[in-house]
Structure formats: structure tokens, C-alpha cells
Design goal:
single chain; about 190 residues; mainly beta; 9-stranded antiparallel beta sheet; 2 helices; 5-stranded mixed beta sheet
Amino acid sequence: MALDLDIVTIAGHLCTVSLLPSETVLDLKAAIEAETKIPWSEQKLLLQANWEHTVLKNSQALSDCGLDAHDQDIMLVRSRPYNGKYKVDIKWNGSPTVEILGDLAKVSWGEHCIEAEIQWDPGLPQKATFTGLKLATSEWARRHTRGGHKDSDGVTETFTMMFKGDAAADGFSGTFQRQFEGPLPMQGCYLGDD
């Protein structure tokens, strides 16, 4: 019995492909390439459970990936030279971890996490920006709302990064701006791609 697999990006549905459970992730990537023209070599396919992502390996049979006869979404992210994890030092705001996987960014601030779609600058491939909503408040949010802002209201956080070279290991610099606050300098140090 064929598996009907919905392929999604962070922006939404991309395509649907049907494959047998005995076929491999590489076969799945070829089917996605046939539908979307995204080269298989630029595809990273993920199964998502809560905040955790499991990367599907090319040689795995679909049946060995935890896929079954039920329709399931598989997230596709395009590989980029800056994929990996970074420790980010932000003036007066500590050091979150930022994980970049293609067009997806995940920021971990202890118990708070945000995910957002990265906008890559078409004229300057080393420049990227993303904005996400963090379910928290801040001193400045409370001041600007005369104490009315709560964690459940959330604050938007914008990261603007300029990578220092052609590879992730070179790190990045840029600015961080939280809603109700001004921009602050930040530096990103590459931790690896695990």
C-alpha cells in the first residue's frame, strides 16, 4: 500500500507524493524534485515532533523512518552553507542558541523557543533576517504598556545576521531587536551542525 506523503515547508504545503514503504528517502527526494524542481541534493527532509526534528537519512527505507499508512507531513528545508548551531551573544540579553536549517531558524532561550522562516537577501547571500514571536514579556514591554503587557501577549524578536564568510564556521555579526526595544549588537559563534 502506497504512502501519501504531504511535503511542507515552514510557509505551508509544497506537494504530495506517493511512494511504497520499501522505497528510500533518496527515492522520496527524487519524487519531490520531479514535482517541484528542487534538486534532491539541496533537500533536507525532517519529521517533526514538538520542538524536535528528526532528519531523514537518504539510505533509510520509508518504513524504517517511522512513516506508516497514515498521511503524514514531512518538512523540507533547503540546504544552505550556513546550516548549523550558533551560540549568539547579544548585548544585555544573554546567549541564546540559534539553529539554522535551510530557511528555518530555531532560537532557544532556556525554556523559551521560537521558530521562524529566514528571509535570505537575494542580492547579498550572506545576509539573513528572521522574526519570531516569543511568548514572554520584558521590562520595556511592560513600561510601554503601563504594566499591561503579559507573557501571553508575547514579543516579536528580529535577528538580522551578516555571515562573515562563505561557510558557517566563520560565524556572523548583526543586530537583535525585541519589540518595544532598540536594536542591539550580536555575534554568532558556530558550534557545529549536529
